[in-house]
Amino acid sequence: MKLLLLTGLIGLMLAGLWIGLWIGIRRISRLRARVEEMKRLHDRRFYPLQRRVSQVESAIGAIEFDRRRERGEIRFEPEMTLGELMAVHPRVREILAFYGLTRDRGSHETEDSTLARACADAGVDAQQVLEALYRFAADPSHPIAGLSERGGSRLMVRFRPSRN
Prior knowledge:
Blueprint: H1 2-70, H2 82-88, H3 92-98, H4 108-111, H5 115-122, H6 126-138
């Protein structure tokens, strides 16, 4: 009799555990669905705001560049790193890329290299690059010198022919 009572009690406990487990799994799946819903809502709100912040930062950067340009504070030196040069204005990257001085976007080895060193590595005259940078600084609304002579202000990529 005690054995029968004990097995019945163990059966009820196991049934209770399974029901509790089933309820827990259902709650977890509902919570996962809610988290996914909140994530979608966050993404819908966050990314447009992030784009807007980027636009505002770009406008502030352009205003700061114009203010510094009008005061004559814009300087380009061969000892400046490419990162420092690109921080002056976003379009400086186009000029450097035209001369083959930037490889990977955000590459530390490229951005830490000085203009003189990058020009020497690329076989480009540093004075020519500085002249292009100063022409840009004098009139940023004008097409970038050198690029306009070769088909507009598009980035030009130099391809090497394959040896096959």
